[in-house]
Amino acid sequence: MNERVERLRRTSLDTEPSISIERGVLMTEFYREHEGRLPAPVLRARAFHHLCSEKTVYIGDGELIVGERGHAPKATPTYPEITIHTVEDLEVLDSRPLTRYRVGFDDIARYADEVIPYWQGRTLRERCLDALPKEWHDAYAAGIFTEFMEQRAPGHTVADGKLYRKGLADFREEIAVVLETLVGDDDETRARRDQLEAMDIAADAAIVYARRHAAFAREMAAAEEDPERSAELQRIAEVCEWVPEHPPRDFHEALQGYWFYHLGVITELNGWDAFNPGHLDHHLGPFYERGVADGSLTRERAKELLGCFFVKFNNHPAPPKVGVTAAESGTYTDFANINIGGLTRSGEDAVNEVSYLLLEIIDEMHLLQPSNNLQLSEKNPDRFLRAGLEVIRKGYGFPSVFNADAVVKELVRQGKTVEDAREGGTSGCVEAGAFGKEAYILTGYFNLPKILELTLHNGVDPRTGKQLGPRTGEAVDFADFDELFAAWQTQVNHFVDIKHRGNEVWERAYAENAQAPFLSIITDDCIAEGLDYNAGGARYNTSYIQGVGIGSITDSFSTLKHHVFDDGAMSLAELVEVLDRDFEGDEPVRQRFLEMPKYGNDDDRADDLMVRCFETFFEAVDGRPNLRGGSYHIDMLPTTCHVYFGSVIGALPDGRKAGVPLSEGISPVQGADRKGPTAVFTSAAKMDQLRTGGTLLNQKFTPQLLEGTPGIDLLLGLVRGYFAMDSHHVQFNVVGADTLRAAQADPDSHRDLIVRVAGYSDYFCDISRELQDEIIERTEHQGF
Amino acid sequence: MNETSLATAATDSAIGAPVFNIQRCSIHDGPGIRTTVFLKGCPLRCDWCHNPESLIGRGDRWTVADLVAELERDRPFFDASGGGVTFSGGEPLNYAAFLADCLDACRERGLHTAVDTSGFAPSEVVCDIARRTDLLLYDLKHIDPTAHEARTGVANVPILDNLQELSGRTETEIWVRVPLIPGFNDDEENLEALASVVGSLPRRHPVFVLPYHAIGVDKWRRLGKEPPAETFRTPGDDEVAAVAALLRAKGLEVCIGGAYERAS
Questions:
Q1: Taking the model in full, what pTM does it have?
Q2: Out of A68, A150, A410, A431, which one is annotated catalytic?
Q3: Which residues are bridge partners to A730 per DSSP?
Q4: Which backbone phi and psi does B43 adopt, to 5 degrees?
Q5: How far is Cα A591 from Cα A748, in angstroms, rounded to an integer?
Q6: Concatenated DSSP letters for A613-650?
Q7: For residues B195 and B193, what is the distance between their CA atoms, to the nearest angstrom?
Q8: Interface with B, mutate which of A707, A755, A760, A774 (most B CBs under 10 A)
Q9: What is the pLDDT of residues A429-441, one digit of tens each?
């Protein structure tokens, strides 16, 4: 990292996140005047144009890549047309101890005066919540599922390579060509025409926005005393005059061009996961090679530009939710997730010099954002994986590692062409998508263990006494395990039905009132179809429901099957009573539950149940139609929702006490895996992950285990071995002394923690206090 | 597998051998990611023994067929890492017939095998096993017979003779492993003798220096017993490095720890 990048990085880290009310004020201004007077997509596009023409242009000291989401770095705009923050929300955000966003006193007053009164009661969120039936509200309140689109727009999407081959002027020509083919004045044709006009307006808006940066850079250059900086500003002006209107001509323009698209997408709406350059190394590779070949670019200069580019992502904390509580922490991460490696469109190894440059940047800068991952194909060389593992070993928690070959198979199974699949990758947390061609929308997390709790209580939620699900039988009614399992399946289907019907309300609302004409320009085939991204214009339109707690549900069924029905050690009714008492006075019973076969140990007695649970959820969701002409699939990831979902469930038959977090991703229940990482991977690979759009597996290691070449060899063998079994993703967390101390205090939650004891590895909780202390000391020594 | 060994396998499959642990994802007992099978019982009584479970209590009996099926479970990781299966103990040569059948079955299935042995067994048994395995992890604890007997209960003469034989009369890869125990075998005299023994073998073999660690003491106590001798000291990193340097200076290829450091 050179001095410039270090300075920009430091500024980004030191600047406190804040709320920028500018977008909210400008949108309110525009909507107040024009809402109801323009066709919906044109209203959206012209509002976007208004934002691009009026919002503050910021160029920071020493920056080479320019443009901010808010009026300044770390300032996050609001999206009142989707959801409106109350005065109280803003005050809590300004004062809470964790993930705080500063909001100026005057800004709160102005927001209360100008913005809140216009939107209250008419945001998209409020209109949808009003339209949703009681069954949806009851299930939502009980924590059976969450709703992604209630505060943020559908997003989860990623750019492909066309942004580096075309400029907005080219897209406008394409729009004009399609417009010419539209004849007639029927409703459908008129709607298409409106949509295409909206896209054209949005394209112009982004050009206007870039030119304002050019003009500002020229002004700054003229006033600049340092001739070197003045020349840089001149160059920035030239770049911003050229891109994104025209295709980039060099490395610098490629980065700046992408950045204007990025800003456009996240200014237009607050889509999930911000936006994402996807396979940045593929896209930049040709510019890098050309620049180095003709002498206009050096490796150092490329690295400097990439460093400046990375800082821009870190300048954008995620838009905070409404209805926040002081205790709630949330995250600043907005999940733009850069893909490195993988395959070319024709299926070859796509690793290039920029892949290695990116890994160096990630290592040196270790910023919270952008997130980053390795797309690892069996065609990628071990050298590439080793370079990535060297970074992972440092314990930043990234890059995570994805199986590029599995991602292609997943996408092809869903109906994509193999070329589009190879050009795809993963975004957000772990979600597979065909970059630049797919609107893949995560609709909400789904609480599989909560539904078992309802099943054990004949459809009643024991927390509230409400009858939420169908009456599938009292505990005393079940003659065998299969009957009980069938009852759970009935309940799962029931709540997926409710979720599915609810999703249609949101989907329709976004299609009709929250179009994304700018994102539509760059998503194939919205222009050709004359349809919006949010209305089915993309080539592929997918909806996901994300299953949470597969480890907890599996282990719970394991106790029910083996302890209750096979061994007859207690009746189901007795078990339910024990759970209802939260194991109060029943610790020996809980210990027996903990001894049952557990998922994560390559034990087929448990893993077969995992497969049954997975298949149940898959069958309940996969293939349902959405309103955008696509269909539903499943993901198996929780982000942090396993904590919330755990908080709404009483004790479970796996031995988990009330309120404790559920298992996370497809990882085993915390501490349940006792046979080491290969057994965890083998268990997890029994899930047919190719029929998902993403699974998430976390593995924890202490630094000693990963020392030297043997440490890298170990990780390499684990990753390649796990991926050979068609699995989707793994991420390695290197734990520090704090975690080890926590494990000493609470061994039960840390039974899976493996440590290396000089040439020998063991479970941390199994070794003596003295050895534990010694390892803690050694771990601290290593600076984690 | 030839017909004779199939016949033995049939007998051994019925009886099996006692196993006290099957450790998956082991990276300290040969190349790559391995599953290590620990067989019970040992003719030696080393004062620093770090696997006292091999001496105390009972193991589960495993048949060849069941054991090999269990070993298959981590095959994707063996393939990906150049790993395989290691038979350790105790002393795996205690169950030579069973071990031979396991090794044949693994070879049949294309699983890489290693045998971690003290070398304290009849020469024909050691050589027979050597021909059936891909790698021998061969422990050398002390070169002086008296010192060896004092701390392990047996003289090292057959061990040194067997090593000579294995190096000269088989082609099996051999990694010499030296548990480095301060005050017992880290003196210059022993190290030079060691270098001379290993250096004059018919073939060249790498030496793995395994620093002693008190994990054995910990395990004895977990098993409810007191360790047989006073606690030994764990050598410092600099001591280990000095030993490695000394052996390297004598022309040996030396690794520290049980895994093969390609960088070294």
A1: 0.93
A2: A431
A3: A401
A4: -75, -15
A5: 11
A6: HHHHHHHHHTT-B-TTS-EEEEEB--TTHHHHHHHT--
A7: 5
A8: A760
A9: 899 999 999 999 9
